[in-house]
Amino acid sequence: MKHGFFLFSALSLLVGCNNSPEKRAESAVSEYVSNRMGDPASYRAGKFDTKPYTRQDSVAYLTSLAQLNADSAAQPAAPPKVANGAAQIGTFVRHDYREQTKGGDVSRDSGEFVVYPSGDVVQLIPSHRLKRR
């Protein structure tokens, strides 16, 4: 009986450690990506990089989108400062993954995502695509 209690306690602790916001964000992104594949079973998770996503990050992203869509002669503008800009509004996740077909073909891809506390996942345009050419 003591061993069962110890095993249950250890398992609960292990599950509790994996329930961090970063792990929940990684899980949400995995589900998001696999559900958008032709065959969700072909999804193979790779590397995850996570960091807090703040209000200022959101404004900087929107500014980059606006610059990308603006006339190429326009001067790039610095993103405006926002009140409470350091407040975390989600988790940024950069994820590398691969798709392996039943025939053995492998394709690799990656994406950048924001996972909000509600569990909503938003795929971002990758940062390397937002840079001026």
TrEMBL record:
What name does the UniProt record give this protein?
Lipoprotein
